[in-house]
């Protein structure tokens, strides 16, 4: 069936036209309900990619560079990179999206700090957990040293940084408890 569209039966062609009409009606309904803008608000990366492509097509290199920078910032934010690193780049995520929306009174809520979907822990909680593991390793190295075992230079360096680790754990715990 090389040219199946030309050899459709009468009922098949009617069904095809009906399906196309339903599809167009669904698209129009989505546009009218503002669901398209809601999707764009949830996915700023897609919007920025479209804007970047438009800038490339019109050969607006300055705008393309700015959009590329903003795209990187948004992607980093979505991946959980700290805001301090983003601020070092001079990016403002809220200004990077031009939403062509009918409803201009929509508000966006800020997500909690980089919650990992796999473990359900924030980046701060993960850092606390790794520091506690590091402290346990330091204690086991100290026990080995007391038993007379000869330690490597890196292990001795780790033991020497015990107080820094303890201080950082206390600082993070105070941040989490809010005191």
TrEMBL record:
GO terms for cellular component: cytoplasm; exon-exon junction complex. Residues 121-148 form a coiled coil. Residues 1-25 are annotated as: Disordered. The keyword Coiled coil applies. One of its GO terms (molecular function) is RNA binding. InterPro entries: PYM1. Residues 13-24 have a biased composition (Basic residues). Keywords: Coiled coil. One of its GO terms (biological process) is exon-exon junction complex disassembly. PANTHER family: PARTNER OF Y14 AND MAGO, PYM PROTEIN. This is Uncharacterized protein.
């Amino acid at each position: 069936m090389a040219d199946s569209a030309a050899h459709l039966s009468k009922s098949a062609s009617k069904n095809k036209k009906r399906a196309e009409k339903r599809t167009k009606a669904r698209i129009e309904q989505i546009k009218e309900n503002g669901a398209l803008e809601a999707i764009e608000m949830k996915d700023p990366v897609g919007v920025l990619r479209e804007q970047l492509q438009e800038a490339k097509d019109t050969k607006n290199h300055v705008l393309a560079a700015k959009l590329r920078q903003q795209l990187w910032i948004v992607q980093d934010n979505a991946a959980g990179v700290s805001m301090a690193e983003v601020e070092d780049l001079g990016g403002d995520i809220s200004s990077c999206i031009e939403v062509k929306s009918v409803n201009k009174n929509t508000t966006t809520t800020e997500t909690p700090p980089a919650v990992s979907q796999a473990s359900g822990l924030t980046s701060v909680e993960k850092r606390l957990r790794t520091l506690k593991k590091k402290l346990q390793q330091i204690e086991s190295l100290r026990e080995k040293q007391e038993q007379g075992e000869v330690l490597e230079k890196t292990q001795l360096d780790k033991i020497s940084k015990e107080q820094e680790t303890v201080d950082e754990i206390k600082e993070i715990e105070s941040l989490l408890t809010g005191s």
